[in-house]
Structures are given as structure tokens and as C-alpha cells.
Design goal:
Blueprint lengths: L25 H15 L8 H38 L42 E2 L4 E4 L3 E7 L9 E5 L3 E6 L6 E4 L10 E5 L3 E7 L34 H18 L5 H16 L12
Helix pairs in contact: 1-3, 2-3
């Protein structure tokens, strides 16, 4: 296996990378990879090195999450087929007439403006979907729902109930405009709503799992194609504390090695040895050799 950066492809010869992955110590293998990259390229010397590596970690997590989802779906498919055979033929539900749909009329799930399609739908510019009664957008951390209401609507006329797995929002005295379960759980204490210019209800939802794209906002909506979302630039601060700590440690160790200085593990061992020597002054360490 040979790793060559794009800027060095024509100036540096191909150098083989030799290392084996120990499943019990994956970070050890990753440190060797970064060490190799540090020797054969200038990537780790760039100011944007942490951001680029953090982006790669985020993308890898996303791919792993998608693989796990596919596995779960494959285990469910046989059951779905069995239920389909034994169940009664589906009954068509009469569609409401266009004239009967007024701006303030409630509806649990609205249909997208574009024609219905089989399979996932390409998301809007905000990585969500637009409907006649509302629209939603998202990033990895949050989901924003926008609901147009009659001009002059005050906050006192709005009812909004946000739970961990469910949203109910509408106008007082009327059936809810949205009433359904989320694609995934949210943090109710970090969610809020407001009314903008007395004509738009805006609901901000903070996701619990901030490494996953939602395929729909409320259960029953068409699913979007999460492969077509346009994620924002990932930052090191976006990673969870454990992953961020591991990445920062590896980056520090690679810089130390490039400058001929001890790594974090070596510094820790040296500190432990100094402490031991100070606690045992009667011992002679003059001829001791340390690796």
C-alpha cells in the first residue's frame, strides 16, 4: 500500500506503507498512518490539518452509521414481506379537494410541492423538504421548521408542544398543523419556537444524535436522499469529546515526532520516572538506561 499526496505525486517516489491493524488497538494503527503521512507529505504542517482530519473522521462515522442502518433494514425486510402476504389488500384513501384546503386548515403530513416520486427525494437547499403548509431544513446539529400562518397572528394564538420524540404545533381552536413523531429524538430543553413578523411560526429543534442526517422530519413524510445533502464544513469542535481528544492527541504526537521531541505517552512516562526517582533518592540511577 502506497500513500502519496496530490502535490507530491510527481516529485516524490512511491514509498510502501507497512503496518498491520490490531483490532484491540486501532488508534495505534492510526498513529502509524499519521506518522507515515507526516514523513511523506506536508499535510500535518498545514494550519488546516486538524480541520481536514476532523472532516475525514466525520465522513467515516457517517458511512459507518449508514452501513448499520442498511443492516437493520435487511433484517426487517423478510418480516415486512410476510406481513404483506397475510394482510388485507390496501384501501385507497380519498384525497381532499384542493378547494377545501385553506391556509389554516390542519393536516398531519403535507405532500411535497413536487410530484410524488418512488424512493428517496432530492432534498431542498436546506437539506430538508418543502410542503404546501410548512417546510423544514437541517444541519447535523439542528432542524428548523417554518410554518406560514395568516398575517397578524400573535404568539398567544399559537400552541406548540415539543417532546423528546414528538411535535404538536398549530393555532388555538383548530386542529394541529403538525402532529407526529420525529425521525429521531431531540433535546426538548434546547428546543424553542417563535413567531416572525406575525405571519410565520419558526420551530428550532436540537438533535440528540448530532452525527446523523434526518430522512424526514415528521413520520409519514416522504424520505429525502441523505446521499444528496450538502453538509457544512466540519470543524474539530463539532466532534464529540472522546473523538476530539483522540484526534488532538495524535496531531500533537505527530508534531512532536517531526520536531524530534517526545510524544505525549513518552512525556507521561518521563514524568512518572522523575516522580519515582524523587521518591527514592537512596537509589542510584546513574547507570540506568531508559527507552
Amino acid at each position: 500500500m502506497a500513500i502519496i499526496s496530490d502535490t507530491q505525486e510527481e516529485t516524490r517516489p512511491s514509498v510502501p506503507f507497512k503496518a498491520s491493524l490490531d483490532p484491540s488497538n486501532p488508534l495505534g494503527f492510526l498513529e502509524k498512518v499519521l506518522d507515515f503521512i507526516g514523513k511523506e507529505s506536508d499535510l500535518l504542517l498545514k494550519d488546516s490539518a486538524e480541520k481536514e482530519i476532523a472532516t475525514a473522521v466525520t465522513v467515516a462515522k457517517k458511512r459507518l452509521s449508514e452501513v448499520e442502518k442498511k443492516k437493520k433494514k435487511e433484517t426487517v425486510k423478510p418480516i415486512e414481506k410476510k406481513l404483506t402476504k397475510e394482510s388485507v389488500e390496501p384501501m385507497e384513501v380519498e384525497k381532499p379537494k384542493k378547494d377545501s384546503l385553506k391556509p389554516t386548515e390542519p393536516m398531519e403530513v403535507d405532500k411535497p410541492k413536487e410530484e410524488e416520486k418512488t424512493g428517496p427525494i432530492v432534498p431542498n437547499k436546506g437539506n430538508g423538504l418543502d410542503f404546501e403548509k410548512y417546510s423544514w431544513t437541517q444541519n447535523l446539529q439542528e432542524v428548523t421548521i417554518t410554518i406560514p400562518v395568516p398575517s397578524g397572528t400573535s404568539s398567544r394564538s399559537v400552541t406548540c408542544e415539543i417532546k423528546k420524540n414528538r411535535l404538536k404545533v398549530g393555532l388555538k381552536g383548530q386542529d394541529p398543523i403538525i402532529d407526529g413523531e420525529f425521525f429521531n429524538a431531540v433535546k426538548p430543553d434546547d428546543c424553542f419556537w417563535n413567531i416572525e413578523d406575525q405571519k410565520i411560526i419558526s420551530v428550532l429543534l436540537t438533535k440528540q444524535d448530532q452525527m446523523q442526517w434526518w430522512k424526514y422530519c415528521v413520520k409519514g413524510e416522504p424520505e429525502i436522499d441523505t446521499q444528496k445533502v450538502e453538509p457544512e464544513s466540519s470543524k474539530l469542535s463539532d466532534l464529540d469529546p472522546e473523538t476530539r481528544s483522540s484526534v488532538e492527541k495524535m496531531m500533537f504526537d505527530q508534531r512532536q515526532k517531526q520536531m524530534g521531541l517526545p510524544t505525549s505517552d513518552e512525556i507521561e512516562k518521563q514524568d512518572m520516572m522523575k516522580k519515582f526517582m524523587s521518591q527514592h533518592p537512596e537509589m542510584n540511577f546513574s547507570n540506568a538506561k531508559f527507552n
